[in-house]
Structure formats: C-alpha cells, structure tokens
TrEMBL record:
The keyword Signal does not apply. This is Glutamate synthase subunit beta. The keyword Oxidoreductase applies. Residues 147-472 form the FAD/NAD(P)-binding domain. Keywords: Amino-acid biosynthesis, Glutamate biosynthesis, Oxidoreductase.
C-alpha cells in the first residue's frame, strides 16, 4: 500500500498547533490539519507489511491501508473513494479523527522500530475534505419496515446505532436527557478538542435520514442527590417505552464519577470534573448559567492523570487559573516505550497533552489524604508520596505536605452507568454495575429483558468513543436481526 519505499523516504509528519498564547484566549479547535500534499506524503509511508495490524488495533476495524493508499494516489475520485472506505466501518470519523487516542498507530508495523504512519491525521484530513466537498450526504432507506426502535442515550454509541437502524428502514427515535444531543462528546469533551458543530452537522444528516431526536427526556429516574449532568424537563417510564416501541437500545454513558472519600470532601470547592466541564460547554453553546463553576484566579488541583484530568487543565487555564497542578497515583511512566516488548499493544508511556503544554505542574506517585478548609471553603490539600513495589502501593513515611488549593477537581474516571436507568428496565447488571449482555452469538447485545438491548459504556463501562461507535454499529445489526430475522448491516 502507499509507496513501496515511502516509509524509508518520508518522516512522520505531525499535525500542527496554534501557539499556546493564542489558543488560550478562546475555546476553538487549534489543531492545524494536514493539507492534501502532506496527507499524500503521509499515506505514502504506509508500507506493504503483509499483515496490517492497524486494522485490529482499531476497535471499529477501519480498513486503514486502503484509505491510506487512496490518499497517496491523490486524485479527487481517490479521496471520494477514501471517505467511502472510511464510512464503511466508522459512522463518525470527524469525532475519532479529533479525539481518538489512535490505538491503530500503536499497532502500526512501522511502530516496531520507527515512527508509525500518521493514521489519525489522514483520517482527519479525509473527513474534513469530504464535508468541504459535499461528499457526505444523507443515505435514505429504500424501504420502510414499519418497525419502531427507541435509542436511549444520544452519545456516540446511540448515534451510531440510530443511524445504522434508520438506514435499513426502521423508524428510530433517540431519547437524550440533556438539552442537546451528543452525550459526553457534547458535555464532556471541551470545545477546544472538538467543536460541537461536528455533532450538529451529523444530527442534521440523521434527521434527513429519518431519525427523530427527543432531547430533555429522562427515561426512568435519577438517583437522589446524583451529580450526573441532567437537564431533563420530561420523564418517560421504561414501561411506556417498551409498550410503544418494537425494540429498545440502551446506550447511555458510564457517568458515575469515581469519588474520593477522604476528610474534607464536603468542603465548598471540591467538585467532580463532570460538574466543571459540562458547564463550560453549555456556556460556549450560548446558554447562561448562574454561579458557573470557574477557575479564575484560583489555585487548581486536578486529581487524576487521564484525559478527563487533562481536559480540566486546559479549561482551567482558559479561565485564567493562578496555578494548575495535576495528581497521578501511579509513578511517572517512561518517556519512550519499549517498542519490541509492547508492540502491537497500547504502550504505557508518558503522554503529554496539548493542555499540559499550555501550563501545568504534574505530580506522580502522590495521593490525597485530606481536603483542608476554613469556614467551609477549600484552602488546601494534604498529600503523601507513594512508593510502588511489586505492584503494591505504600506511603512514604514523612512525605506528607500541604498544597494550596481553592478548587479541587476529581477526575479519577467513571465507575458505572446510572444504576436507576438499568433498574427501571429490570436489566441484570454485571459485577461492575454495567448492563449485562454479551457481544457474540445469537443473543449479541440482548439483555435479560425481552426486546431490550445494551451497547457502549452502559454495557462495557468507561471506554473510548471508538469503542462506543463499534458497539452501536454491532448492536444495530443485532436489533435488525431481532426485528427482521436477518440483516444486511455490517458486523
């Protein structure tokens, strides 16, 4: 694929960024994508490796060598074919081309001892050109089946399932508890990583394909005192939904944030990341919020070293935080992975995001012992250093210290979907609190409740957007087979 000797002739070319001082002034995307010639050169690096491990490294099994080769060939008709290849496995490459961590690149054969092909940047270039050229159009069903399907959850899993089911002729209604469609893409991912116009554009395409969207509708109930984002203005019972539709697909996110039950947790100024991030996205959309949670002029401590924590760092810096410190429980990983040892799997290595580069102090092997405060307000965080030996964590004696903090954001991942939604339908849960359903065989994605299916985070737990899209697509095929006896949808 590509140019036979291309991987020896061309270096990996990274997408560019606007300078930090410029991008910190707004919430717009700042990645500078590859132009046509740069994408062609990057596609040339895709080698004739025999077994393209990138395909299996990608959860949706994108046919990566094929679209790399088409971009390398470079004619307009080749680019048009490239988006057809990309869309054959991925409904929303504009999402994954921006926010997927690219496990395909970790699995690239070149990555054994060289720099991987810039697969994600090529995907980004293909879909952006496809939208610009008008190649992305509604795909209307040839016939209507008369079957009605409810999709509960408007995130990437729900959107993928809805689009696939609509395209084979089912009448699909997506129910979303918040005021806009997108799930955690909408109210979790900051706009500077993915502007929400990309979601809106897809929603319009799906409406043209026959999908109905009902926002502000909660199915079931929320737990009392829940901190999960919920802007619903209407409630519908699970029984009503089962009575009105021929099939129901549960595709909600794993929205229950992992808590940190240490002394001082109830102080004003200690919040979940998912209280902080959705508010800014809502303001960016033009809404007005009273008492918005902001980091202006504050000493901010972000507890959790993953992507959500990084998003808190970037948002805090845009607010104008006085200082930002990010904690990670684990020791600092190596800057360069042992490629022959880890390839083709996802390696553990130090990952520095664009938000970190904008200004952030990072602390590794550190734990929070207590939140300190005065008159009910957070003033500091007591910490202790950790030592890891044989996979076991112990505190380093005498290493306690106190760091100043006006705002502490808990970004330690998510534990499970909202239990009351599953309970409303009577769906069995696994040991982790997720909806219980297998992904293979005749009962793929089926729950224990007749005509109720589960896919995405609500079934597998916290995961990547690309896994959500995969499960949404596969669940759509399972639902179509359930309703019609057979399906032409791809697995």
């Amino acid at each position: 694929m590509g140019k036979v000797t291309g991987f020896m002739e061309y270096e990996r070319l990274e997408e560019g960024y606007e300078p930090a001082p410029v991008r910190l002034k707004n919430y717009k995307e700042f990645v500078i994508g590859l132009n046509v010639e740069q994408a062609k050169q990057q596609g040339a690096r895709c080698m004739d490796c025999g077994t393209p491990f990138c395909n299996n490294g990608c959860p949706v099994n994108n046919v990566i060598p094929d679209f790399n080769d088409l971009v390398y060939k470079g004619r307009p008709e080749d680019w048009k074919n490239a988006i057809a290849v990309l869309h054959s496995t991925n409904n929303f490459p504009e999402f994954t081309g921006r926010i997927c961590p690219a496990p395909c690149e970790a699995a690239c054969t070149l990555n054994v001892n060289d720099d991987a092909v810039g697969i994600k940047s090529i995907e980004h270039a293909i879909i952006d050109r496809a939208w610009a050229e008008g190649w992305v159009t509604p795909q209307l069903p040839k016939v209507k089946t008369g079957k009605k399907v409810a999709v509960v959850g408007g995130g990437p899993a729900g959107l993928a399932a809805a689009q696939q089911l609509a395209r084979v002729g089912h009448s699909v209604t997506v129910f979303e508890k918040n005021d806009r469609v997108g799930g955690l893409l909408r109210y979790g991912i900051p706009d500077f990583k993915m502007e929400k116009s990309h979601i809106d554009r897809r929603v319009e395409q799906m409406k043209a394909e026959g999908v109905e969207f009902r926002t502000g509708v909660l199915i079931g109930a929320m737990p009392e005192g829940s901190k999960v984002t919920n802007w619903a203005t209407q409630t519908i019972s699970a029984d009503e939904l089962k009575a009105q539709f021929d099939a129901v697909v549960l595709t909600g996110g794993a929205e229950q944030s992992r808590d940190l039950p240490v002394p001082g947790r109830d102080l004003a100024g200690v919040h979940f990341a998912m209280e902080f991030l959705p508010q800014q996205n809502k303001v960016n959309a033009g809404d007005k919020l009273k008492n918005q949670l902001r980091a202006d002029g504050k000493h901010v401590i972000v507890i959790g070293g993953g992507d959500t924590g990084s998003d808190c760092v970037g948002t805090s810096n845009r607010h104008g935080a006085k200082s930002v410190v990010q904690f990670e429980l684990m020791p600092q990983p190596p800057e360069v992975e042992d490629r022959p040892l880890t390839w083709p799997y996802w390696p553990i290595k130090l990952r520095t995001s664009s938000s970190h580069e904008e200004g952030c102090e990072r602390e590794f092997a550190i734990a929070t012992k207590e939140f300190l405060g005065e008159k009910g307000k957070l003033t500091g965080v007591k910490t202790v250093r950790l030592q890891w030996q044989g996979g076991k964590m112990t505190e380093v004696e005498g290493s306690e210290q106190i760091l100043k903090a006006d705002l502490a954001l808990l970004a330690m991942g998510f534990t499970a979907p909202v239990a009351t939604v599953l309970e409303a339908f009577g769906v069995d849960k696994d040991q982790r609190g997720n909806g219980k359903a297998s992904t293979e065989g005749a009962n793929a994605y089926k729950t224990n409740v007749d005509k109720v299916f589960a896919a995405g985070d609500i079934r597998r737990g916290q995961s990547l957007v690309v896994w959500a899209i995969r499960e949404g697509r596969q669940a759509a095929k399972a639902v179509d087979e359930y309703l019609m006896g057979a399906s032409t949808l791809p697995r």
